[in-house]
Amino acid sequence: MAASExxxxxxxxxxxxxxxxxxxxxxxxxxxxxxxxxxxxxSGGTTVTLVGTGLTGATSVKFGANPATSFTVNSxxxxxxxxxxxxxxxxxxxxxxxxxxxxxVAFTYVTxxxxxxxxxxxxxxxSGGTTVTLVGTGLTGATSVKFGANPATSFTVNSxxxxxxxxxxxxxxxxxxxxxxxxxxxxxVAFTYxxSPVVTALSPSNGPTSGGSTVTITGAxxxxxTSVKFGETPAASFTVDSxxxxxxxxxxxxxxxxxxxxxxAAGTSSAGSASAYFFYANPPQLADIAxxxxxxxxxxxxxxxxxxxLNATAVLFGGVSSPSFTVESxxxxxxxxxxxxxxxxxTVVTPGGTSNSMLYxxxxxxxxxxxxxxxxxxxxxxxxxxxxTNLSRTTKVSFGAALASFKIISETTLSAxxxxxxxxxxxxxxxxxxxxxxxVTYTRVAPPGI
Length: 450
Fold this sequence. Notes:
By secondary structure, the protein is an all-beta fold. The protein is rod-shaped, with a radius of gyration of 53 Å. It starts with 30 loop residues before the first strand and ends in a 5-residue tail after the last strand. Residues 1-17 and 20-25 have low confidence and may be disordered.
């Protein structure tokens, strides 16, 4: 008889009431639902947020085959990681915990981050609002444009190489402008915040309607000037001498005052200050001069009449300035003739230019060499002839204190009618614009008594 085999099962832990064992379900592995941002630079360094479940205790975060540069488990549903370098294209992002490895989510490596080469204009107002154009590379998908620490008021990505942005407000000085995309942040380019320009003085503050005056404009914040205007008309030319001075040439204009304004990227200066006005003047005109002659020694008071004579700066006798003159009105000036000889053109200079000329003659004083006849009755009416030199401009013939009627015959001869007077010798003189002559003697003889 075959021997029987008793198969006694070995004692098992869970069969021993004195040794109870508890059981739990195996933990679920991690899952990923998103990565934000979903793209970044191939050079790495992009900080991304991974969202999912079961992320506690993560031991690895990978971008393709490459582990993240660093990562932080924020919660069971979120991890923050820094991308390693990669090659352009899509790679799977996974998270590994002790419970396993997650499903992948897609991350796209893009070529190098954005670069900037210029910002135009490169300056603008501290109040903001300047529209600038940024030129560079890799600008597609820009998420931020900053001027220093301040984001642009608005921006538009025109292409991979151009962005148009509106500056925020800032403070005077240079700030870096940067563009950020998912691939990173660009190098900076410089933008200068400026105060609006101010005009405080003009020298000279007036000039001719024909233009051409060189005007020194004084003020503040006058660098990077793009325009200088006299009223609505651009200056014929201008040079920025410094932040406080511009030299400009006035354009043609019409008589009257116009504001001079300066424009920079920061704005246009105010036109409200009287000190910023330029006054156009018509050229002066002369219609008459009196007297028309005077002595070579000068000193004659000459009256000039005409139009637009206000603000006269000089009265010239053949290029020689009058030692003194008075502008009595826009139509009249009284000037003192300087010494001179011959005929000289007299002109008036005002901010409107130089007038037409009027002739003024410098004449030598008259001389008398004789009177014929040299005697006559005490009654009026004796006809005499006066001989001498420089007699053609005679204005007066005097017999003592009495004036005689006369006729100019030539430069050397006058005909005069002796006035009545007491018997005896009387001096005869001739007056011209050149002065008073020497005297010759005329003798009055009393009629014989009865």
